[in-house]
Automatic annotation (TrEMBL):
Identification of the protein by name: ABC transporter substrate-binding protein
Pfam families: Peripla_BP_6 (PF13458)
Lineage, opening ranks: Bacteria, Bacillati, Actinomycetota, Actinomycetes, Micromonosporales
Alphabetical list of InterPro entries matching this protein: BCAA_transport, Leu-bd, Peripla_BP_I
Similarity comment text for this entry: Belongs to the leucine-binding protein family.
Keyword Coiled coil: no
Domain (Leucine-binding protein) ranges: 49-399
Keywords on record: Signal
Organism for this UniProt entry: Micromonospora zingiberis
Domain of life, source organism: Bacteria
Amino acid sequence: MATPATGPCVLTRRGVLAAAAGTLLLSACGREGDREQAVVRPTPGHELVIGVTLELSGPGAALGVAQERALAISAEAANVKGVAVGNLRRTVRLEVLDNRSDPRLAAQQATELGERDDVHALIGGALAETSMSIIGAAQQLRLPFVSLAFGDAITVPLAQRAFIYKVTPDAGDVARRLTQLLDSQRVRRIVLLAEGGLHGDSGVRAMSNAVRAADAEIVRTVRLPRAADGVTRAAEQAVAARTDGVVVWGTAPTSGAAARALREAGFDGTLLFDAGAVAEETLEGRNALAVEGAYAVHPTSLGGSTMANGSAAGRAYRDLVSQYIHRHGAYNGFAPYASDALLLITTAARLADSVDRGRLRAYLQNQVTDGMSGLYSFTPIRHSGMERHSLGVYRVDGGAWNRHS
C-alpha cells in the first residue's frame, strides 16, 4: 500500500519471497499453536529419522566435521518440543555415518539407509563427488536427499533429480558477485585457479559467462590438482600470467593451501574466493597471513551481522553459534548448511502432516523458507533454492571474515 511519505510500493522478487516465507511460517506456527495445548513434548515412540553421510575423515573433513557439529546442535534444539507432524510430535533421530570422503562408500551408505523403511530423508555429501555418488541411490529408492555440496550438476538435469535438493548457492550467482567485486576493485585481468572436479567445473563455466558481461578478462585458467604437492606448481603458473587478481574456486582445505602457495610464489595482488573456501581451516595456522586481505562471496550468515535479531532464523543462528563455541571452542563462520537442510526437511514434514517420502519430496519442492544461511525458494523446476540476494561479500581482516558489501 502506498503512503504519502514513502510513495508507491515496489514489489521485488525478494519481497515476494519473504512474504511467502512469512506466510508459511505463520501457517506452521498457527498449526503448532493449536497443538501446543494438547502436546508439549515429543510423542514417545514416534520419530523423524534422517540418514546422514558426511566426510568426517579424509580430504573433506574440513567441511564435513563442521556440518556434523552444526547438525547435532540443531537436532537437539528441534527435539526440545519435537516436530509437529499431524497430531504427533516426532523426535528427530539422526543416523550419522562417516563416508571418509570416498564417493563409493557414500553411495553404499545411501543405499543401506534408503533400503530401511524407517529412514525418511537423507542429508550429506559436503563434497560434490560424494553428493553425486549419493544421487543414484536416492533417486532409485525415492528418498529425499538434501545435498550440502557445491556444484550445479547436483540438481540438474531435473528429470533425473526429482528427489534431490541443494542448499549451497549456485555458481552463477557467486560468479556474478565476484565479477562485480572485481569491477569495484578495478581489477580487469585475472587468473582463475579452479580445483579439479565438479565444483571447479561449475566455477569455470560460471566465471567465463560472468566476465563476458563485465569489463574483465580471464587471462588463464589453471586447474588445482587434488594432491597437495601439485598446488605449488599450479600457483606458479597462475603467478606467471602477471595479473592483478586471482580467483580461487575451490573448497577447504584446498582453498587455503592455494592462497599460501600463491603468496609464496610472489603474488601480492587481489585474492578472491568462492563460498567453498569458508571453513575454520582457511583462516588458521599457516594460512593466516596468506588469506589476510582476501575476499569471499558467501551467504550473509557469515559473521551473523545481517541476521534479523527478532526473526526465528536469527535466534536459531545465535543459539547455534553460542552452542558451537561452548562445545568446540571456536566458530569462524562456516555456513550452517546442514542446519538449514534439517530445517527444510522438518518444515516439509510439518506442512505435509506426514513423513512419507513422496509427500516430503512434494513439500520440499514447493517451499519458501528463511534459513540460517539465507532465503530458500524451491519450486518443481528449481531444486537449488538459495536466493542470490542471500549472498554478500566478505574480507579477511585481523584473521576474521568481515562484511564488505
